[in-house]
Specification:
Blueprint: E1 8-13, E2 16-21, H1 32-55, E3 58-68, E4 71-77, E5 83-84, E6 87-89, H2 96-108, E7 118-125, E8 131-141, E9 154-161, H3 162-166, H4 172-179
Parallel strand pairs: 3-8
Antiparallel strand pairs: 1-2, 3-4, 3-6, 4-5, 4-9, 7-8
Length: 188
């Protein structure tokens, strides 16, 4: 795998285009196969939206807010233009906290014990033509771990202060969660 420390992505925002860099956690791989996977993820996501438009499913999802020194870990998926938290669907027979733990490991390479997860937020989200019952967990880290975006599904990882994050284009339930947070001293 070759390192790609210069990866940047532009996101169109109201009032112009903002460039976010991945200086903290660069992609470890950016091969032709990774690029092909990103294309497949975009196609699959568009198919997912089309199916949801017609079926309007009820789903359940687990989101994880990872905090370190007053900053929250955000990710960007290759198939979306907004930033979000590590998250994903809850499998059949899987507990909500087990799904949260699995998604955190799959998306950023962080393996934490179930005891580290504290459920703090629930919301019914109607984005993406579905009714998604979201359970959000908080995890507080004491030290900066080594995190790894896979370069296929997750293409950006970074810690941001709450106020800085709220200036970014965020997935609606992530914005709702951050809006309910109290400001942290030294938040940037």
């Amino acid at each position: 795998m070759r390192s790609n420390t210069s990866f940047t992505d532009e996101v169109v925002m109201t009032g112009g285009t903002q460039t976010w860099s991945v200086e903290d956690f660069p992609l470890e791989s950016d091969t032709l196969l990774d690029k092909a996977f990103r294309i497949l993820y975009r196609i699959a996501y568009q198919g997912h939206l089309a199916v949801n438009f017609f079926l309007r499913p009820k789903t359940r999802g687990a989101y994880i807010a990872v905090w370190l020194d007053g900053k929250i870990l955000l990710i960007r998926n290759s198939y979306k233009s907004v930033f979000t938290l590590p998250c994903g669907g809850i499998g059949r027979g899987e507990s909500v906290v087990d799904a949260a733990r699995r998604e955190l490991l799959e998306e950023v390479g962080l393996d934490l014990p179930v005891a580290a997860f504290r459920q703090v937020f629930q919301k019914i989200n109607h984005t993406e033509y579905k009714q998604d019952h979201i359970s959000l967990f908080e995890v507080q880290l004491e030290v900066l771990p080594r995190l790894r975006p896979d370069g296929r599904e997750v293409v950006w990882i970074g810690f941001r202060g709450s106020m800085e994050a709220l200036d970014m284009p965020l997935f609606p339930p992530v914005r709702d969660y951050l809006n309910q947070q109290q400001p942290v001293v030294g938040d940037g």
